[in-house]
Amino acid sequence: MIAVLFVALGLFAAAFAAVWLGAIRSARRSGAVAPGLGQLTLGFVTNFFDSLGVGNFAPTAAVFRMTRMVPDAQIPGTMNVGHTLPVVLMAFLFISSVDVEPWTLGSMIGAAVVGAWVGAGVVARLPRRAVQIGMGGALLTAAVLMTSGMLRGSPVGGTALGLSPVGLAIAVPTSVLLGALNTLGVGLYAPCMILVALLGMDPKAAFPIMMGSCAFLMPVGSVRFVRENAYSLRPALGLTLGGLPAVLIAVYLVRELSLDLLRWLVVGVATYAAVLMLAGARRAGQPASD
Questions:
Q1: HEC string of 251-274?
Q2: Residue 119 CB contacts under 8 Å (≥ 6 apart), including other chains
Q3: Does the model's pTM come out above 0.70?
Q4: What SS3 state is found at 113?
């Protein structure tokens, strides 16, 4: 199972890299493409925290908008293209270095991919604000329950590296839903970390599952952004070249964290994601100013 995942992921990444390298060569004929220090630093910082499960799209978009580094219309494409190879590297490193039962890993990754590809049309018709409120509230509730359990000395989350048939019966359809919601802009990382903890698995097991899921999804969308030139090349290169070394450092850090620290990390990530979702829903519900 692991070998199949590696081969498939390698093919996805190679196809994306070939398309992007062709675009970079074409762009070099008309001017410089090397990213600046600020773009490299942004890539390092956002991908470092992404490797910890915080996510990289929200902070990257915020910096792009504040600095006007990238035109608003090109922000989605730039983020997808620039973060693809660091996320693929995360997936390879976490899958190879963090023990997870192969069928659990493959089933949850496959379910998330199916959810993103097949369920996108269904999810696209859901009211985004309602989804944000529902998911934000659920994450916040889970974070409170986990915090309460840890303070009482009976923390949620165990040491299991795989799921029983009953656990898989819960995890697989939930992963399909999370993959579908990811296409709506609801991040997969935080709910995946909570799901793994609630099912009694080692929190580290969430990292190869969530990184692997996103690593299969991103190359496909990024190829389209490159072919349509719907992104900004230099900032995207900065995200990639700055992000790759950050991933190597952060993955080592996650592997060395104690179980208790990882549980608190899950709580922090879930709370952060919940606040972002609820804030986004609040902004969406406000009437437009004249």
A1: HHHHHHCCHHHHHHHHHHHHHHHH
A2: 176, 177, 179, 180, 183
A3: yes
A4: helix
Residue 104 burial (10 A CB sphere; 0-12, 13-18, 19+):
buried
**Which amino acid, residue 182?**
N
Q: 160: helix, coil or strand?
A: strand
Domain boundaries, the chain: 2-284
The stretch 107-136 carries a mean pLDDT of 78
Give the integer Cα–Cα distance in Å for 159 and 205: 9
Beta-carbon contacts of 229 under 8 Å, excluding residues fewer than 6 positions away, are 23
> Using CA atoms, how far apart are residues 188 and 192, in angstroms rounded to an integer?
6
CA distance 125 to 183: 11
Spatial separation of the C-alpha atoms in residues 62 and 66, rounded to whole Å: 6
5: left (phi over 0), alpha (psi -120 to 50) or beta: alpha
Residue 52's contacts (CB-CB under 8 Å, 6 or more residues apart) are 250, 253, 254, 265, 269
Sign of CA dihedral 107, 112, 116, 122: positive
In whole angstroms, what is the distance from residue 245 CA to residue 289 CA? 44
Please state, in angstroms and rounded to a whole number, the distance separating the CA atoms of residues 195 and 132.
17
- The Cα 251–Cα 50 span in angstroms is 10
Per-residue pLDDT of 59-104, as tens digits, reads: 898 899 889 899 988 988 899 899 999 999 999 999 998 889 999 9
Inter-residue contact 161 to 199 (CB < 8 Å) = no
d(CA 201, CA 69): 41
- What would the pLDDT profile of 264-288 be if each residue is shown by its tens digit? 888 888 888 888 878 877 877 666 5
Alpha carbon 184 to its chain centroid, in Å, reads 13
Q: How far apart are CA 274 and CA 29, in angstroms?
A: 45
User: How far is residue 94's CA from residue 53's CA, in Å, rounded to a whole number?
Assistant: 12
